[in-house]
User: Fold these one by one.
Assistant:
Number 1:
Amino acid sequence: MIQRIQTLFLILAFMFLSLMFFSPYATFIDPQAVFYIFDFSGIYGQEDANMVINILPLQILITVVPAISLVTVFLFKNRILQMRLCVFNMLLMIGMLILMAYYIFYIKKELSFQIYYKGTLLFPLISLIFTWLAFKNIQKDEILIRSIDRIR
């Protein structure tokens, strides 16, 4: 049912997560004033495009998590599966947040760069909140349907 509020929450989560493909997450500046950018393609130097760190596990998560959000929207006839996918997606988002923090603090510790965070780092957290709200509304629908079945 596309007109349900949980569909709106899941689409908003998908939109925030898909914006992560196009925006940088943080900018690093080393002591020689060389800029490094942390985005979907990795951590690389701005002038020479030299890759500092490959972030393949994070790239996989950033690709899979929005896809699961979008698939969950269209499973409105199977609410139990929809709830399970929401929980699984929330766990993946928490893992994505932890992995992003790991990469940022690894760079800060090992290479002593100065960090400038971007608002894009909050997108997984915002999507996590939207997915949780969708889960609660799907759960409320399931409880309502079960109570109606019990009356018959």
Number 2:
Amino acid sequence: MEGVITAHVVVDDSGMTGHGHLTLLGLAWHKDDPLAVVLTLSAQPDHPALPRGEWAVLRDFLRYGLEEPTGDGVVRLRPTEDGRILFELIGSKPYAVHVPATMIRDFLDETEAIVPHGAEAGDDVMDALIARLLES
């Protein structure tokens, strides 16, 4: 789909690669809603007891989280000394997942190649962002 950037990363394999479940963090961005990024935590195979949830955050929020602790709500980010970003995701249960900072940076660079930073803020974009955030 044109104007859609997605990325997925395995954040946990239960220490049993190939024999257990995988926990995945997905990121999705759409050029029609350029301020927002949707984070999706899921497990494969799916099971109600395994991690799951969806959060909408500002694209800039992810960029800030690459350099400094960011957030005080249901999504918090902070860089770690080993080149990863710690995502604290609060839903029906709290989850903490580590993601390589390079993966987040590459994802953001791809989105900004389509809609540069600062070029996002028309009235229709703000309406879409507000609607998305209210869904969370």
